[in-house]
Design goal:
0% of the residues lie in helices and 49% in strands. The protein is built from no helices and eleven strands. β4 and β5 form a beta hairpin.
Length: 124
Amino acid sequence: QVQLVESGGGDAQPGGSLRLSCAASGRTFEAYIMGWFRQAPGKEREFVAAISWSGSSTYYVDSVKGRFIISRDNAKNTVYLQMNSLKPEDTAVYHCAACGGTCRVNDRYTYRYWGQGTQVTVSS
């Protein structure tokens, strides 16, 4: 079992930045591919970014490439999402998730553990 708790959400202006954190506890954190997903009102939960257990491989949805950076610190059992050049369309609840076993990094159905989410609102 892995427990995930997100923090760092809030309000930002277009062009601004936020840094999300996801603290993990429970089973061996470094064994999991970690991902960030987001869900806007009335929309499906969508993949944002993922990172391999070592941190050597990262994956992004096209809409955030060049603006968001995912990273992890296995010593702190934490994964981060640095969000820059924010746009109103980035407004959503952001969830971190842990993917164990067979994992397709952009497929939410292959992620086993989920956090409750943190709200990000981008508006002027």
